[in-house]
Amino acid sequence: MTAFEQQLSAETRAELDLFCDALWLEFGLAANTIAGYRSDLAQFGAWLASRGTQLIEADESQLTAYLAEFSRRAKPASQRRLMSAWRRFYRGLLGQRRIAQDPTVQLDAPVTGERFPRTLSEAQVESLLAAPDVDTIHGLRDRSMLELLYASGLRVSELVELKLFAISTGEGVIRVFGKGSKERLVPTGDIALEWLGRYLREARPALLRGRTCDEVFVSQRGAGMTRQMFWRIIKQYAPKAGIPAQRISPHTLRHAFATHLINHGADLRVVQLLLGHADISTTQIYTHVARERLKQLHARHHPRS
C-alpha cells in the first residue's frame, strides 16, 4: 500500500479495488495503465481527504482546483492520464447511479497549462436569465432560481435545499448551510430579491395548492426541487439563450458569479467567503479572468498593442 493510499478511508480503498478490477476484467487495460490510474486517484483522494472530502463526493470545482495545482508540477501527458482516470472512475459511478452528476463533464484535458471551468460572459448570463417565460408560474420560479444563483454564487445543492426561514429580505441576505454543515451569510442583491419576492407571492402558492413545504423552491407536486430537476431546467433554457450545450453545467452560474466578481475587482478572500470555499486554492482557479482582462485592456489602450 502506498503512502497516499494509507491516507484514504477503507471505503475509498475498496472503491479503488473495484475500479481497478473493472479496468482489467471489462476493458482489458494493461497492468501499467491500471497502476497509473490507481496512483493518480489515490493521490487525488489523499488531497481530498486532507480537506474533509471523499473521492466519491468530489465536485467539479475540486477537480479543477486540484488540476490547477497538479499542472504546475506535472507534464501534459501526466495531466491527460489524470483526466482519463477521473473520467473512467466518475462515469462508472454515474452509470451505477451512485452519483447524480459526472464532475468531469465540463473539464478539458490539459495541453500545456492550467484548465479552468467554462464560464459565461455577462451578456450570455443576461440572456440565460431572460429565457424563462415569467408570465407562467414555472417560468417565474425558474427566473427566480436563476437570478438567485447568479446573485449569490450558491451551489445547486444549496439552492434547492434553501429553507424559507433562511431568507432575510430586510437585510438582503440568505443563510446557507454548505459542505460540512458550515453556515455562511450570503448577500443577494436587490434584483434577485425582487424576483424572489414575486415568486413567493405569485408562483409558490399556486405550485403548493394548499400543501406545505419548508423549501423555498417547489415542484409541481408541491415538494422541494432536486438537483436533477434544476439541471433539466438550465439545459432547457440554454438553447433559448443561444448558449451551446457544452458551455452549460449545473454550476455554470456559480462559476459566472465568481468570475464576474473578480473581473470587476473583487478581493479573492471575499469571493472565497461568498463561495464557502474552505481552501483559497479552490477559489484561485477564477483569478485567470483578471489576467485575461488585463491583457484585453492592454491590447485595447496601449499604443504599441
Automatic annotation (TrEMBL):
Gene3D superfamilies: 1.10.150.130, Intergrase catalytic core (1.10.443.10). Residues 10-94 form the Core-binding (CB) domain. Residues 115-299 form the Tyr recombinase domain. CDD domains: INT_XerDC_C (cd00798). InterPro entries: CB, DNA_brk_join_enz, Integrase-like_cat_sf, Integrase_catalytic, Integrase_recombinase_N, Integrase_SAM-like_N, Recomb_XerD, Tyrosine_recombinase_XerC/XerD. One of its GO terms (molecular function) is tyrosine-based site-specific recombinase activity. GO terms for biological process: cell division; chromosome segregation; DNA transposition. Coiled coil: none annotated. It is found in: Cytoplasm. Its main location: cytoplasm. The keyword Cytoplasm applies. Keywords: Cell cycle, Cell division, Chromosome partition, Cytoplasm, DNA integration, DNA recombination, DNA-binding. Pfam families: Phage_int_SAM_1, Phage_integrase. One of its GO terms (cellular component) is cytoplasm. It comes from the Bacteria. The active site is at R155, K179, H251, R254, H277, Y286 (o-(3'-phospho-dna)-tyrosine intermediate). Site-specific tyrosine recombinase, which acts by catalyzing the cutting and rejoining of the recombining DNA molecules. The XerC-XerD complex is essential to convert dimers of the bacterial chromosome into monomers to permit their segregation at cell division. It also contributes to the segregational stability of plasmids. Forms a cyclic heterotetrameric complex composed of two molecules of XerC and two molecules of XerD. Belongs to the 'phage' integrase family. XerD subfamily. This is Tyrosine recombinase XerD. It comes from Azoarcus sp. (strain BH72). The lineage of its organism: Bacteria, Pseudomonadati, Pseudomonadota, Betaproteobacteria, Rhodocyclales. The gene is xerD.
